[in-house]
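Provenance

Sequences were taken from public entries as deposited. Structures were produced by running a predictor on each sequence independently, with no templates supplied. The record for Glutamate--tRNA ligase from Devosia aurantiaca is shown for reference.
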Amino acid sequence: MSVTVRWAPSPTGRIHLGNARPALLNWFFARRHGGRYVLRMDDTDLARSTRDFADGIEEDLSWLGVTPDLLVRQSERTDLYDTARDRLIAAGRLYPCYETEDELDRKRSRARLLGKPPIYDRAALELSAEDRARLEAEGRKPHWRFKLDGRPVQFDDVIKGPQTVNTASMSDPVLIRADGSYLYTLPSVVDDIDLGITHVIRGEDHVSNTGTQIEIFEALGGPVPTFGHHNLLTDAQGQGFSKRLGSQSVRDFREEGYEPLAIATVATLTGTSLPVEPYASLDAIAERLDFSMVSHGSARFDPAELDGLNAKLLHAMPYEEAAPRLSSMGLEGEAIWLLLRENLVKFPDIAEWSKILVGPMEPVIAPEDQDFLALAKALLPPEPWDETTWGHWTETLKTTTGRKGKALFLPLRMALTGRHDGPELKSLLVLLGRKACLDRLP
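Predicted structure for Glutamate--tRNA ligase:
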């Protein structure tokens, strides 16, 4: 069977790490099985969905390395949903309801007081044609509910294993609002049938929805896809990511200078048995990640883990990959990259580190080191220099002054770079050159 998956974001904001998780897990599954990847914009919420947000989602996916095989927008597919609506009405599975939200709230409260589950009582099914006409004459417009079978719906989840959702304990879901607009459920099922979706991979918060959706698939005579529900990624405090709560977006991470592969790796491998470590590419992850590796427990995002992974990717990045980005910052030469990359957490950090080479830089000289540094200046070897120069110079200073360890090396580092930490001085010395070193030593 040819695999076709879909990721279906709502373009009501920028995507965050929690959104990136199913986007990438679907991508990995499609790549692993040589399948197709559909990006479906669930933009039926006309009040909140915007084209700018939709464009932003495409931009973020592209940055992460995901290239959909097909893009569809639900706002452009209304005729399909109307046809399905009419079929369900004709089959007696979709029925009009006239209760207001206040009336429904009162029904639910009453049920709770009586110790009953607060599910819809299907009172609308008892309305006669005359009752409906009277309500509509009063100005009421119906919302439409799908009549559930009310049975245990069983399915084999490729992540969580065998599942049962009993729709007898659920309210008949509203599929169409009183203004005629569609909620998520019906368009989603119709699209999955029309697009030939074979696998629906999404967060475990959708497990209970699956029973309802399977019943709609069956009512429309469509093939039921295979479902897989993964654990949800939470923030460092254990809270779910949310657009409405302003969770840090993928674009925010991009603008802060994180590598797309680091974001993709942390978003997907957190909460699995695969280690969160550098991989060569998304395809390398796809080759190794199997859904049996997805934990049934929580998946908590650790910012420190992201920083560590991002740093490792930069430390291993070849010059050829870094060169265009360096050039855009006015930095040229493989030697600079090889010297500074080991100190980077994020790529933009190199702008600050490069100041130790090109300045402006203020040497930091402790009063008690003045004489030592003056002697170091006098003993600075003549050029040409190579990576052995540092060792010869410091050995001469050690023999001459008796200094060693931190007392020997730290004053030299502070005078030459103005920092306590930094790249290897044996390599830095060569790039600085003798004139720059003389200028920085007192």
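The CA atoms of residues 143 and 178 lie 4 Å apart.
The mean pLDDT is 94.
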